[in-house]
Amino acid sequence: MAQPVVTSKTYKEKAVVDGVTIWLNSDNSIEISKTDFPSVKEGLRYLAEKAGLKVDPKWNTQQLGKKIIAHVNGK
Predict the structure, then answer these.
(1) What is the pTM of this model?
(2) Using CA atoms in the order 62, 42, 73, 14, what is the torsion angle rounded to 10 degrees?
(3) Rounded to an integer, what distance in angstroms lies between the CA atom of residue 22 and that of residue 32?
(4) What pLDDT, in 10s, does the model give residues 7-65?
(5) What are 29-34's contacts with CB under 8 Å, separation 24+?
(6) Which residues pair with 22 in a beta bridge?
(7) DSSP, res 67
(8) What is the mean pLDDT of residues 65-73?
(9) How many Cβ atoms sit within 10 Å of the Cβ of residue 20?
(10) How far apart are CA 34 and CA 20, in angstroms?
(11) In this structure, what are the phi and psi dihedrals at residue 46, rounded to the nearest 5 degrees?
């Protein structure tokens, strides 16, 4: 099992899906705590499915991360 990443950035929001933390950082970048996905975007797609969020293939990593966080946090 991969070691979780602890973000060094200041985050604005976060959410946890299936044991994986998603952070929206103060610079609007997205980080996830699980590092064994092929990419952050692929990880986010997986987490969106787990959270029951339908993904628009046009969304970029930032949009997808923000939408998952909002969905999980009930916003």
Answers:
(1) 0.84
(2) -70
(3) 5
(4) 566 889 999 999 999 999 999 999 999 889 999 999 999 999 999 999 999 999 999 99
(5) 29/62, 30/61, 30/62, 30/64, 30/65, 30/66, 31/5, 31/7, 32/5, 32/65, 33/4, 33/5, 33/6, 34/2, 34/4
(6) 15, 32
(7) H
(8) 96
(9) 18
(10) 6
(11) -60, -45
Length of the chain: 75
Question: Which residue shows structure tokens 């299936």?
Answer: 18
Residue 47's H or E segment, with its range, is helix 40-51
Domain spans in the chain, listed from the N-terminal domain onward: 11-72
Q: 3-class DSSP state for residue 11?
A: strand
List strand residue ranges (DSSP E) for 1-75, in order. Answer: 11-17, 20-25, 30-32
Residue 10 exposed, middle or buried by CB count within 10 Å (0-12, 13-18, 19+): exposed
Residue 75 CB neighbours (<10 A): 10
